[in-house]
Amino acid sequence: MQNSMFIEQQDPEPYNHSGDVRKNFVDDDGREKRTGTWITASAHIITAVIGSGVLSLAWSIAKLGWVAGPAVLIAFSFITYFTSTLLADCYRSPDPVTGKRNYTYMDVVRANLGGRKVQLCGLAQYGNLVGVTIGYTITASISMVAIKRSNCFHKHGHHVKCYTSNNPFMIIFACIQIVLSQIPNFHKLSWLSIIAAVMSFAYSSIGLGLSIAKAAGGSHARTTLTGTIIGVDVTASEKVWRAFQAIGDIAFAYAYSTVLVEIQDTLKSSPPENKSMKIASAIGVSTTTLFYFLCGCIGYLAFGNNAPGNFLTGFGFYEPFWLIDLANLFIAIHLIGAYQVFCQPLFGFVEKWSSKRWPESKFINSEHGVNIPLLGVHYVNMFRLVWRTVYVIVTAVIAMIFPFFNDFVGLIGAASFWPLTVYFPIEMHIARSKMQKFSSTWVWLKILSWVCLIVSLVALAGSVQGLIQSLKTYKPFQAQQ
Known about the structure:
Strand content: under 5%
Structural class: mainly alpha
Number of domains: 1
CATH class: Mainly Alpha
Low-confidence stretches: 1-22
Mean pLDDT: 84
Oligomer: single chain
Order of helices and strands: HHHEEHHHHHHHHHEEHHH
Radius of gyration: 23 Å
CATH superfamily: Amino acid/polyamine transporter I
Helix content: 55-70%
């Protein structure tokens, strides 16, 4: 958001100057003109929500069974859509159509609740974003490694270990992100999100197709109404912990509230942003649920209670190897875009804070035009260049040192799911509507919030247990097996 902040500081009232040519390029708040629609917002949502986790849903369904698994999927789809509509109405205050814009989740909480809740929101949101970007670095490298291992298995046989290090691929991923991180803000990111959304459909469809082929090919995998069987597949304690982890995986697979407000801030004001955002949320959540349901249920049908954690990177399939390679390439491309969707709000927060803290600094606030052949003039901000590059490098190094950091991401996600997806949207809706305490609507909203808190705590316990198990076998810089 550096360009928009620079314009705002130099000319806070652009419309007061007759003949000012910039009035065609800025919105009513003096910021860069927003051009997003429900289509681009839907692409952002799908990019943020449908991650490589879609391919682990067969594992989640296997831990919960045919009854609880689909029920949990449906329940969280409704909860996510409902709370997203509440949050969409909070973008402008006090009126959802004509009120003052709130540019970030923290701004929304500040305008509607205030106090220490603003700091708690920031801690949950930006802590989650940092964890997700580190996790995506790891996950993308795993998909790249899977391509190399797939070719190795095809050439030498499935019994060969085919050890491969993730680190070179993490470096490649980081180099790509250093370049893409120079995209100034969310407003310039629509093309990348659309590409990433197409990739997510592509690899999900491949995984779905392979599962259908395996199930139709006479595979008689054992499936049950309650999932994995105690004494046969797992011990009693493993059944409980893995069920907790499965619920957490499904719950956090839907969460995009961390970036919802920032996505909404890309929308043009006609039709009203909250109306467009609700349409985008409906499309995003329904599309996600359809893919989750198909991949999870048909994947479970194909693999049964022994479903792998991710049947494209975990080698639930070995052949056709070229199709496995293609799917993993799509995963990597998708995560390249998803990384940007999640890190842009963090970039914007740091740059906005720094601009306010040092308003006279040319290093922080000045834009320098660079003429790039065939691409035209690109504006470079030195602070943006340095700080974003450092951030990408640091996340890559942490990912290389702690390759099991996905457990930490689950931990951070468990801690942020309830406040960001459920608690704040509900509390802000109650405050905005001046809802009477202990009214029927107030009571059921509070019950929903408390139930989701319990689910979040259960998932948190599962994530902690998973982290402990990872630490027991931790070996830094170990090659992927």
